[in-house]
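Dear V.,

Thank you for sending over the compound details. I've combined the ligand you provided, zinc ion, with the protein sequence from our construct and run the structure prediction for the complex. I'm sharing the raw inputs here so there's no ambiguity about protonation or stereochemistry in the SMILES, which I know was a concern on your side last time.
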Amino acid sequence: MNYAIGIDLGGTSVKYGLVDTNGSIAFEQTIPTRAEEGATALIGRLTSVVVDCLLVARKKKFKVVGVGVGTPGIVDRSFRIVLGGADNIPGWSDIALAASLEAVCGLPVSINNDANMMGLGEQQFGAARSFSDVVFLTVGTGIGGAVISNNELFGGYNNRGGELGHIPLYANGVDCSCGGKGCLEAYASTSALVDKYRNRVIEKGINQTDNVDGRFIINLYKKGDSLATQVLEEHWRDLGHGIAGLVNIFSPQRVVVGGGIVEAGDFYIQRLDSYFRRFVMPDCSNHTVLCAAELGNKAGMLGAAQWAFSRIAQASQNY
Ligand SMILES: [Zn+2]
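Below is the predicted structure of the protein with zinc ion bound, written out as structure tokens.
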């Protein structure tokens, strides 16, 4: 059995492990990212992650064939360099990450955007396994996503597209972190939900804004609180509106939605589905099922390992 090292680099932690071609995890570990220490220190930390996996593999007599890394930001079309756009890691731009790691381990390294790797993980081993056409969204501080069309990750020209959180929904809407206006992320991320709840509470003259997060609002919703219900219904409406646009374009078999808030309960997907159906074109969506992600925080690591395998298979076909 062949193994790949899968690495999911996040703003606060690095999750990594040894994964076989069936998506079974033989070893996994999580360490802090310490993004504030800068890009050079972070490359060093990722290097030691690779060495750690190789030592484990040697002990267990596993054959490791490659390394896959999911990273925040835009990755170049050769899947070797982080170009930029990683807001949560200062200085994480123009980083020749694949070459740096290859110099240490002598194995082929392929990198890609973190949300793309989560989407690939869910399509290969999670909620959308056995489907060729999948849209994935992860709802958290921001909204990230991936499109897999006919079993291929969609990246646009030079792999610079696929920013699903930045579909503009409202031309006269609020400013978005990307520099645009009225993006899906600015209306339907968990941060946007929390901000909206806080602002409505302040408007009502109630001073109860400490410790508000997605879980807090969900708990109030479950108790029938009218304000929590109002902001969550608007959250589902806006997210459903954005998903409808994606489905009208890509007509996927599955739309997989992940992120902490989605794990609140089945009602989350049910409410989202009812709004999504209201906005989507029926002929584009008659094969589409909306569902919750299944792999939790392992999706990125599993997808990154699968990415390593698929890039190696592709390279061998080209020779
Ligand atoms: Zn935006």
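A first observation: The CA atoms of residues 50 and 105 lie 7 Å apart.

Warm regards,
I. M.
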